[in-house]
Amino acid sequence: MNNVLIRLEGLMVLVAASYFYFTNGFSWWVFLLLLFAPDIFMLGYAVNKRIGAYVYNLGHIYITPVLLLVAGWSLSINALTMISFIWIAHIGLDRLVGYGLKYDTDFKHSHIQKI
Fold it and tell me: Is the whole-model pTM more than 0.70?
């Protein structure tokens, strides 16, 4: 049941972030170009599993993109706002398809399931 709830939450986050991104008039091609950019955080796995999980999780928690979103809105910096919505949408998409925060035992072990 928790797996289903996390996936539904991911769907809602993906839909909401995409909605706000596009209602602000931001570009489709930028959205598509950057949607998978947060996966660069997987490079930590080139070091080892522990560092990999830590770095991956830093890029896949909502805290950083939400802080960037607040900064973008409050400072009227559209680029920050755009990147934030895309980043949040990416995290929602990951949760929807079953990619969760990683344990340091293996890349396939996440808080959602063993992939």
Answer: yes
